[in-house]
Structure prediction request, 324 residues.
Amino acid sequence: MKLIKFLLAGTLFGIVMAKSEAMSWYRIQEMFRFQAFHMYGIIGTAVTLGVIGVFLIKKYQLRDFSGNPILFYPKDKSTVRYLAGGTIFGLGWALSGACPGPMVVNIGYGYLSLLIVFLFAVLGTFLYGLVQNKLPH
Amino acid sequence: MTLIEFIQQPWPWWLSGMIIASVMFILLYFGQSFGFSSNLRTICSMAGAGKVSRFFDFNWRSQTWNLVFLLGAILGGFISKEFLSSGAPVMISDSTIRDLGAMGFAPPQGMQPEELFSMSSIFSVKGFLVLAIGGLMVGFGSRYAGGCTSGHAISGISNLQIPSIIAVVGFFLGGLLMTHVLFPLIF
Prediction:
């Protein structure tokens, strides 16, 4: 029962990915061609509210539901891994039109061919784990 | 317009953005953080990948909440299709329809292009490779970059983290390269 809240949060996420059409390959193409404001509006609104909310959480040292302080752990400082990893990610995002979340939303929506994309994304993560030590970070 | 008619239309960007931010804050309130691609690593670990790489050698049960979130996302897709959808095709801009048309894509009939995701496409060599290589790069790149759209573009930039801003620059470099340079060679 402790997990049901995460099921509900995930369901809300899935619904908004579908209803905003962010799960659509067409919308990702439109975004990378700068031909509509839609995706920029979605991400811009989420990030604007996110920045304000995270600022307030830190300023008022807000706590989570079990009373623990809400903490943010900064990522390791680096440029290579974020730029190189991000670029590889972006190549795949534009090609398949789906980042990891929308992949599974598509599967629920009935686009079962996204199962192939998702399974290969798992495989890609596995390959990263194999070669991690040989890559510049 | 009735409420159900409003819900069945595509949702406006501002409402969608507000709900995505809410999802992030709901997870923070429940003591977790919003980052979807971690699930890919967790699935590798569950499948026993910890035996071949220390990267996957961790207690994956601590990530059960995120796998449940993933199941919810599948359910959300199903609910949207069955109960919240008008069935109208995605309303992309005329210029996108024209650009995609020049590469052989018909105007949208639904949420996704038949040219890439139909059964006849995925059983062709090229169709399969497009999906497989796309997925492979998303999975590899998200872990190399330490996060995907949710972890970096939403959570990370909300926290004004420099690494996340660099990662998002990378997302766009890759996306623009694929769309404007590689697409004309592939399609």
